[in-house]
Design a protein that fits this description.
The chain is an alpha/beta fold. It has one domain. It has 4 helices and 3 strands, in the order βαβααβα. Strands 2-1-3 form a 3-stranded parallel sheet. The termini are far apart.
Length: 82
């Protein structure tokens, strides 16, 4: 019997880069938003699109408010909302 394929992960910015580092040390494919200034500047929508493009699953803390992210998305020059 074969082992299930491990999912590649994208850890949202509230997770310490140390978590990603430890998971990578254990053989997992993990990127931490908090460890990359380019990723930290992205909106949630942009991060989600990147995760989909790279075949990653996103992890978020439960109960996080999206109001600030939605406001950023609406003010973004890349927003599709007119």
């Amino acid at each position: 019997m074969s082992l299930p394929q491990q999912a590649a992960l994208l850890l949202d910015e509230m997770f310490s880069p140390d978590i990603a580092e430890e998971l990578r040390r254990r053989g997992h494919d993990v990127i931490a938003v908090a460890a990359d200034l380019r990723l930290r500047a992205m909106t949630d929508s942009e991060l989600f699109a990147l995760a989909v493009e790279q075949g990653r699953r996103c992890s978020r803390a439960a109960g996080r408010s999206h109001a600030a992210d939605e406001a950023r998305d609406l003010s973004s020059p890349h927003s599709s909302i007119g």
